[in-house]
Amino acid sequence: MKSPPLITAQQARAWDKQAREKFAVSTLVLMENAGRAVAHEALKVLKNKPKTIAVFCGKGNNAGDGFVAARHLLTSGIKCDIFLAGGIEDIGNEAKINLEILMRLREKIIEVGQNNLEKIRRGIIRARYSLVIDAILGVGLSGEVRGVCRDLIGIINSSKAYTLSVDIPSGLDATIGKILGCCVKADKTVTFVAKKRGMVLADGPKYCGRIVVRDLGIPSQNLLKA
Question: Is the pLDDT of residue 57 over 80?
Fold first, then answer.
């Protein structure tokens, strides 16, 4: 039996483009499918635990997946505290649409900056979340993690909560498995279409935890032919 493929960050981006251009599946639909898959895995983790979680989001499409996951978890009766690395005005494109939905649902979005970082750190330690969702940085990361994102990764790693990463742990190079300054140490990573090569190389195995591959609404063999 042929082993499932391992893909690079470049291939992952190419397949997202192919989904849009060849199969007419918009980024918004891909984001919805990804976020729903993350919420599904989160519910498995929360089965016998208190139902309060923290969702940490960055600025790109990975954050959009996190916003969608939060919405589906809220629909399931799970209390979500949503933390944003930076300001609401920094979010664009499809991620902005999903953030707007949460805001129209009157969910509080906690913007994190250097001015309130220590307050946020203390609050997260006191909250004792059952689950943390890491949707800060995705497979597109190429440079070293800096600023508030770096601080939030440190907070997540100091938390005793079960950690679920979206697509890849924030800070891990998706192609070569190198830690780019710092990296979330996940208990489980929900990745899409196929495992990323960096998950099985270098530091990848130590930081990804259990890896679950979920589809994005297109049969994977169609994308894997690209």
Answer: yes
Q: What is the pTM of this model?
A: 0.94
Is 88 within 8 Å of 107 (Cβ atoms)?
no
CA angle 55, 56, 60 (to 5 degrees): 120
Q: Nearest-CA neighbor of 57 among 130, 128, 134? A: 134
Here the tokens at position 53 are 């979680």
Tallying the residues shown for the chain, one arrives at: 226
Q: What is the mean pLDDT of the chain?
A: 92
Q: CA–CA separation, 79 vs 147, rounded Å?
A: 28
**DSSP structural state of residue 168:** S
Instruction: Identify the three-state secondary structure at position 146.
Output: coil
Q: pLDDT class for 221, splitting at 50, 70, 90?
A: low
